[in-house]
């Protein structure tokens, strides 16, 4: 596990994003938006397991830097949908897709039961860290 984390940390940030001072907390937020699509601040907070105000601050910071944008939800004008800007999407995709492709390559040969056992094992590991 430490080797995998170390290798993931060494994936270079694309040149276009280097000046933005992105932190690990931004990486998870951007990964959710890239792979799962636009969502609300509350949805992001739930997935990141942090308070909505924390996500709201990160979204505001990344919006000022031109990485994220907020727009009205077409179905409910009180809600704001957060997404990656079209201008930054290619760089973020290049940066984060490498890890997703590696996971797909590792998990694809497994049966559904084997994948479930793998995910359950990682979940149990994560829970043990919290104990």
Taking the sheet with the most strands, its summary is: 3 strands, antiparallel
Helix content: 55-70%
What is the radius of gyration?
Answer: 16 Å
Please trace the helix and strand order, writing H or E for each element. HHHEHHEEHH
Write down how many β-strands occur, each being a DSSP E stretch of 2 or more residues: 3
In what order do the strands lie side by side in the largest sheet? 1-3-2
Mean pLDDT across every amino acid position: 88
Structure description:
The two termini are 18 Å apart. The model has no long low-confidence stretch (mean pLDDT 88). It is built from 7 helices and 3 strands, in the order αααβααββαα. The chain is α+β, with helices and mostly antiparallel strands and 131 residues long. It has a 3-stranded antiparallel beta sheet with strand order 1-3-2. 12% of the residues are buried.
Write the layout of secondary structure elements.
Blueprint: H1 2-9, H2 15-18, H3 24-36, E1 39-40, H4 41-48, H5 52-64, E2 68-73, E3 76-84, H6 89-107, H7 112-130
Helix pairs in contact: 3-6, 4-5
Short overview:
With 131 residues, this protein is α+β, with helices and mostly antiparallel strands. It has seven helices and three strands; from the N terminus they run H-H-H-E-H-H-E-E-H-H. A hairpin with a 2-residue loop joins strand 2 and strand 3.
Task: Quickly list its features.
131 residues; alpha+beta; 3 strands
């Amino acid at each position: 596990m430490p080797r995998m984390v170390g290798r993931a940390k060494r994936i270079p940030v694309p040149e276009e994003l280097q000046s933005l001072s992105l932190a690990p907390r931004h990486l998870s937020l951007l990964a959710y938006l890239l792979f799962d699509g636009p969502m609300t601040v509350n949805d992001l907070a739930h997935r990141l397991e942090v308070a909505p105000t924390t996500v709201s601050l990160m979204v505001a910071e990344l919006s000022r830097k031109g990485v994220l944008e907020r727009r009205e939800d077409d179905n409910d004008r009180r809600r704001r949908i957060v997404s990656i800007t079209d201008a930054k999407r290619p760089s973020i995709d290049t940066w984060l897709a490498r890890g997703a492709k590696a996971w797909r390559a590792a998990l694809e040969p497994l049966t559904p039961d084997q994948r479930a056992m793998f995910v359950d094992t990682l979940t149990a590991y994560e829970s043990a860290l919290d104990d």
